[in-house]
Amino acid sequence: MSAFSRGFTSFLQHQSLRLPSSIRIAIFSARTHTAHSRVGSRFFQSALRHYAKPASYRPAARSPVNVQSFVTSDPVLRAVQQTQKPVLLFRAPTNYWRYVRAYAAGALWVGTGLYSIKFGNDLGGRGLQPFVIPTYYVVGVGCIIVGCFVFTGPVRRCISLEVIPSSSRLPVQLRVRGRTLPFFGKEEVVVTNIGDAGLTAKLAPIVREWQEFERARTQDIRAGLEDMSVVNRFWELLARFIQQRWDTFFFRFKASISRTSQSYITIPGHGNWRIDCRGDLLEDGEAIDRLIAVD
C-alpha cells in the first residue's frame, strides 16, 4: 500500500503541470500540514509535561551561609578563633598636637570671619560702593563656616577597632572604642556583629595615597645633582624645594577640607565613627576591607 502511495505521489508530481494550481496546492500541502501539526502537538505535550509540577512541589530552600567556613577562610578571624584573644585592626594616632592644631586653625578661621564682619560694619557711612560692605559680610560668614567645619574634624573619632571572640552563636564579633570629643568626651565601647558594620570608603587606597605622600615629602631633593654645576645645582635645588613645600601644603590642605585621609565606620544604633587612616592599620587597611563591606 505504501508503494502504491509513493507511486501515486510520484505520478502526480510528474503530471502536476497538467493540473490547475488550486488542485496542486491542495494535494501537495496536505502531507506537509499533517507533519507540522504532529510535530507541534508533540512539542506542546512535552512542554506541558516539562512545566507541570505536582501540587506538593516546593522550591528548594537556599542553603544557609556556613559561618564556620567564613571564619576559617580569613587569617584574622582564624587567629581569633584559635587563640581566643582579640586582634587589633586599627589604633588611632596618639599625636594630640594634631587636634590642638585643628582647633587652633578653626579658631583662626572663626576669628577672621568675625573680624571681617566687624570691619564691614565700621565701613558704614563712608560713601563706598554698594557692594563693598556686603562683600566683607560674605567673606566673614564663609570664614566662620570653614572654621566650624574644621572644629568638627576631631569629633566622634574611633580610637581602636578589634575582632574579639564571642560568647554568642557567632564565633567572633567586632569591638569599637570611640570618643565623642578628643579631650573631654567619655570613651564609648560598642560590640557588634561584623556583618552589621559598614564602611563609607575602602581604607587600603587611602593608606596607599598617604604612603606615597610621605615618600614624596621626605624624598631627598639633592639626589641626582652631583654632576651639575654650582649655579645650576642651586636653581634646581630651589625649584625642587619650592615644589616639595607646595605639594605638601596643597595635599594637607585638601586632606583637611575634603578629609580624604578618613573613612567612617557605621554601626546601627550608634551612628558613624571616624577612622583616621594615618593611624596603625593591620595589613595597611586590607584586613578591615576584607571583613567590613562598604555601604
Structural overview:
This protein is α+β, with helices and mostly antiparallel strands and 295 residues long. The chain has nine helices and eight strands. The strands form two sheets. A five-stranded antiparallel sheet has the order 4-3-2-1-8. A three-stranded antiparallel sheet has the order 5-6-7, with no helix packed on it. A hairpin with a 7-residue loop joins strand 3 and strand 4. The longest helix is centred in the first third of the chain and has 31 residues, at 21-51. The model is unreliable at 1-5, 11-19, 21-57 and 59-64 (pLDDT under 50).
List the helices and strands and how they pair.
Layout: H1 2-14, H2 21-51, H3 67-73, H4 75-83, E1 87-91, H5 97-122, H6 132-151, E2 157-165, E3 172-179, E4 187-192, E5 198-199, H7 203-217, H8 230-258, E6 262-267, E7 271-276, E8 280-281, H9 286-291
Antiparallel strand pairs: 1-2, 1-8, 2-3, 3-4, 5-6, 6-7
Helix pairs in contact: 5-6
Summarize it:
With 295 residues, the chain is of the alpha+beta class. It has a domain at 86-94 and 155-248 and 258-291. 53% of the residues lie in helices and 15% in strands.
The proportion of residues in beta strands is 5-15%
Distance between the termini: 78 Å
Give the overall pLDDT as a whole number: 78
Q: Tell the overall outline.
A: flat
| String of helices and strands | HHHHEHHEEEEHHEEEH
Major β-sheet profile: 5 strands, antiparallel
How does the helix and strand content classify structurally?
A: alpha+beta
Helix content: 40-55%
| Rg (C-alpha, Å) | 39 Å
Helix tally equals: 9
Strand order of the largest sheet: 4-3-2-1-8
